[in-house]
Every structure is written in C-alpha cells, then in structure tokens.
Write a structure and sequence with these properties.
127 residues, 6-stranded antiparallel sheet, globular, alpha+beta
Length: 127
C-alpha cells in the first residue's frame, strides 16, 4: 500500500508519498517524479508552489539508506496519519521508482555528497 499526502507535488508534477529509511525507519515525504523530499512532512503546507523545507533530492534525507514505502504502523509511529489523503496499491511504476532510487543512491556516498553540495548552493542563492 502507498500512502499519499499531496497530489500534485508542490512543483506540480506527481504525488507526494510517505517512504522510510530502512536503516532507522525514519518516515519522510518523497515525490518519485521530481525526486524532492521532505524530512519532516508535518511541518509543510503541501500547497502548490510552496517548497517549504524541501531537499533537492531524496538521497539527502535518506542519507545513504535504501528506502521503501512506509507501512501503516510506520506512519502511526511517526504521527503522520492525519496527513494521508489517499491510499493506493503499489503499481509497477511505484515499485520501479523505489527500485531505481535504491539502485542509484542507496549507500552511494559520492552521489549523496554531490547532491548535498548542490542543495547548499541553491539555498545560498535563495537567501
């Protein structure tokens, strides 16, 4: 099951879903279409155009861990149940998105460091 908290993503692309780091079960929000992620979904407005505290890429929130879709228990433990606006079965696109993310970014510290530097540069530009 996939738990949706925003549709569309604040950038206007696809839906934002709850996923978790496998290393410590931290639940965060992710748009598999654009790759942006939010470490603390409860602090966001989920309004179109409002990026809030988004990270440039989910690998910065995943911090080297592989990710998987959050379970109802994970979501309840994280206190994010009230954010869920829809539930859907995991289709082939959704499963492939997770597999591609994990194959590309799971435990790849060089790619994570590159994304972190790019994100820091963008934050300086916005300030």
């Amino acid at each position: 099951m996939i738990f949706v908290i925003a549709e569309p993503c604040p950038l206007g692309c696809y839906r934002v879903v709850l996923v978790k780091r496998v290393t410590d079960n931290h639940v965060f929000a992710w748009c598999s279409s654009c790759g942006i992620a939010w470490a603390d979904p409860a602090k966001e407005t989920w309004q179109l155009g409002d990026m809030g505290q988004a990270e440039l890429h989910a690998c910065l929130v995943a911090d080297g861990s592989v990710i998987e879709y959050a379970t109802p228990e994970d979501i309840k433990r994280a206190g994010l149940k009230d954010l869920v606006i829809a539930e859907s079965a995991a289709d082939s696109y959704s499963c492939k998105s997770i597999e591609q993310f994990n194959a590309t970014y799971g435990c790849d510290t060089k790619l994570i460091e590159k994304a972190r530097k790019t994100s820091e540069e963008l934050r300086r530009e916005r300030a």
